[in-house]
Amino acid sequence: MRRPLKHLDQPNDSVLSTVLNCCHVSFSEPLYTAMILKQTNVLEPIRPTVRAVIYRSGDLLVQVKQKRGSAAYLTLPGGKQDPGETAAEALIRECAEEVGTTVTVGPLLHVAEVFKTKADGKRHQLELLFACEVSDNYVPVMGPHPDPSQVGTTWASPASRAAEFRPAYAAALTDTAPVYLGVFDG
């Protein structure tokens, strides 16, 4: 259960009051807290990751991935931002590689923190989800350089197939969702 943080314009905590006395802080939407356990065995550094949120007739463009011995799952197109690359440049490159098309990158919609378990620890990813568009005649295909576990590309309903998404933020991708979606297992 999420609950709004204290209103920052009326702090009652002396430490928060001291911080706010030295600078002006304002937010356009409520901030939320979540029950979060501190992650352990986290690899450095935090990895910036970009994701494309592309809708057509209520469905999302997704990659279908499957690792050996595991069930298939869905994920948004995108990936690691390289040094010197803007978020938009990374998203355009990743979509061309993975879903074989050029995207028009729109506004930032959401931010999520994802912890992916790897052989030597957990990778902490800061995922930036951008509204994107593809041409009207785009048919889902795998791009020329798909992810190693990618087995397909398709349109999928985030509501009816929410359980198949990894990370599990598909159900949160609504018009009323806050910018910060929270923390997810990858």
From TrEMBL:
SUPFAM superfamilies: Nudix (SSF55811). It comes from the Bacteria. Its cofactor is Mg(2+). GO terms for molecular function: hydrolase activity. Gene3D superfamilies: Nucleoside Triphosphate Pyrophosphohydrolase (3.90.79.10). Keywords: Hydrolase. The keyword Hydrolase applies. InterPro entries: NUDIX_hydrolase-like_dom_sf (IPR015797), NUDIX_hydrolase_dom (IPR000086). Residues 45-179 form the Nudix hydrolase domain. Signal peptide: none annotated. The keyword Protease does not apply. This is ADP-ribose pyrophosphatase.
